[in-house]
Design goal:
The protein is an alpha/beta fold and 192 residues long. The protein contains 5 helices and 10 strands. The protein has one domain: Rossmann fold, CATH 3.40.50.2020. Bound molecules: guanosine-5'-monophosphate. Guanosine-5'-monophosphate (5GP) binds next to β2, β7 and α4.
Length: 192
């Protein structure tokens, strides 16, 4: 998606450790006009797929999933990273290792929000090693629902998550795929 690539070139900051910081339009401040364009693009790419629900993970996935859901006309469920007293009933959970925070945690979804047979589209901001997406797939499986596809805003193609998910037969649509980035020159190479 050209608009997104331009924005990454303009505002993305490349940090050491293969981290792309895009907090002035995606991860902290959110550009809702851009989110709307991304939501439409997800809808266009998954036009042939039945989607009953969108699943994301707190916190950075929520904004884009919520905007995208307006084009799919389906509810959004977000996996929570902490157990809270407001979580009740039967829970589905999966362990996830955070790429940016370098720690392991459990993500939780109340099972009543994912019904057997539902077709669930996963949406997230980044795809790196695939741990977050695989955890969400595990939760969908536990619910006896189906993964309709995985929509990612920025895939880091030089990390193995995308390959791993595609090899499992999952349909992954990334709006921008970064094949390389260099912190010294602050340059990003995109896949066509
Ligand atoms: P994965 O589980 O695929 O290794 O990493 C995906 C998660 O890590 C995303 O939900 C995102 O929050 C975070 N992440 C991974 N790489 C980056 C990055 O380069 N920049 C930012 N801002 N977040 C990242």
């Amino acid at each position: 998606m050209e608009l997104l690539k331009e924005r990454i070139r303009k505002d993305g900051v490349i940090k050491e450790g293969n981290v792309l910081k895009v907090d002035n339009f995606l991860n902290h401040q959110m550009d809702i006009e851009l989110f709307n364009e991304m939501g439409k693009e997800f809808r266009r790419r998954f036009a042939d797929v039945q989607v009953d629900k969108i699943l994301t993970i707190e916190s950075s996935g929520i904004g884009i999933a919520a905007i995208a859901a307006q084009y799919f006309h389906v509810p959004v469920v977000f996996a929570k990273k902490t157990q809270s007293i407001n979580l009740d009933g039967e829970m589905l959970s999966a362990p996830i290792e955070s790429f940016t925070h370098k720690r392991k945690y459990e993500v939780i979804v109340a099972s009543r929000f994912l019904q057997p047979g539902e077709r669930v589209l996963i949406i997230d901001d980044f795809l790196a090693n695939g741990c977050a997406a695989l955890g969400l797939c595990q939760i969908i499986e536990e619910a006896h629902a189906q993964v309709a596809g995985i929509g990612i805003v920025i895939e880091k193609g030089f990390q193995h998550g995308g390959q791993l998910l595609r090899e499992k037969g999952l349909r992954v649509e990334s709006l921008a795929i970064v094949d390389g980035m260099d912190a010294a020159s602050q340059t990003v190479q995109f896949r066509d």
